[in-house]
Amino acid sequence: MPEAFSTRPPPGGLVARLATLLAMAGGITLLATATFSTVSVLSRWLLGWPIPGDFELIAIGSGLGAFGFLAFGTLARSNILVDTLTAWLPVRVNQWIDAFWSLVWAVVLVVLAERMVQGAVETARSGTTTMVLGLSTWWAVGIGAFCIGVTALAAFRWVFLLARGRG
């Protein structure tokens, strides 16, 4: 991996603070989900009492937890970088290549966020709920859309930094 990519800290600012908060919330959500899953399994195994809707809550919590990490991962550039074919190129050329692919990632994220916002609106409009507990699900889709939107901002931040040779 080129030296320029391995030693630089992620950018700071509002997007970084928001990405950090989302990652912390995602971590807390995953810990709560794991704890709930453990309690649910122990309850079934030791007491024979299932927790109604446990799989619904675990699915929602796991999904939201994972969404929480996307922006921080993008900002920290902790994604997989395959530079086998470009390692011999000058650092500046690699930065332009990375800026291009960060732009592609950002555009895909904007499209996904917009579609998820539409999904949240439609889910609220139709009154979609979970099967067992009857929980409305629009809010989970909306939170996911927000997380994807923040991830897009993080990707755009890298586009500008890399294009200016500061990545």
Automatic annotation (TrEMBL):
Transmembrane feature ranges: 21-45, 57-76, 96-117, 137-160
InterPro entries: DctQ
Protein name: TRAP transporter small permease protein
Entry similarity comment: Belongs to the TRAP transporter small permease family.
Origin superkingdom: Bacteria
Keyword Cell membrane: yes
Compartments, record wording: Cell inner membrane; Cell membrane
